[in-house]
Amino acid sequence: MRHLDRMLRRPLNYGCVSIAQLSFAGAGEKARAKDWHRRMALGDTLNSKTDWKYWLWRGCFVRFRSMGALSSPDAPAILFVHGFGASSQHFVKNLVGLRTANLKLFALDLIGFGRSEKPATHYTQHLWEAQIADFVREVVREPVYVVGNSIGGYMSMSFVADHYPSLCKGAVLVNSAGSLGESAPDEGRTQERLSRNEVVVNISKGAIFLLQSQIRSILVKLYPTRPDAVTNDLVRDIYRDSTDPGAAYVLESGSRLPSRRTLIDLFKGYTGPLLVLTGSKDPLNDASARARNIGVVYPKVSTLSSRSTKLCRYSLTFALLSGRS
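Above: the chain sequence. Below: its structure as tokens.
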């Protein structure tokens, strides 16, 4: 018992959340959801088989990983940002493969995804961008090269456009989402979007329930050239994340997002290095064509294409950053 007591008094990895903070429990639906995530964070932190860490952001538990040359003052910092419905787990092979390089490596679960908390809040691109910026300020504590996949690519570019060069040194977009057209008018619907639609919340819960049984088949369609990438661990992680309290709120928020800036808008405020990585056989979009279009809008871009379906998830290499500026 004394040994356990010493463990419970010891601060969590990286000093971001203490065990004392994790020991609070309240009452009611919100408190039960908070207690769910508190217990999960506590279990993850005390599990010697994992290197997960937790950061308390706006009162919510956020999971992240950090590894590599963390104590080296000369090592560049790299931050990985996942896509919609994904988590930092999707970058595990990238992190492990690069941990012996002279790099500081970070990957976080955006709020509402992975093992991060999923509060009943209004999820928007502004919320996620603010989380990325605060993570860099409070955890990384130096400007980063940010690597974003899919929606995470759009969020990364949004972060870069607003925080270069104070918090960011450059960006890597991997099969990134984001419109290359003109900005869409808001049409005065911002206030309407702020009101949660409980009918849509219930529909989202039903959609999650139906999709849970199809996770493996959906992933196989997304990885037609690499079906071996659809592992039991990947399926299990995505299923587990979808069972957390509040998961439906993230899906419901997608129906009322405020108007987004286009990638063209974001490039206007950015003058730094940009690398675009594409999987030419990505079934979700014509990634190669998007890369060419980005080159028209932002001529300073460097591009690399692969026949792999999802280039970033499992085979990214940062020898590409050898020419960083």
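The beta strands are 53-57, 60-68, 77-81, 104-108, 144-149, 168-174, 274-279, 302-306.
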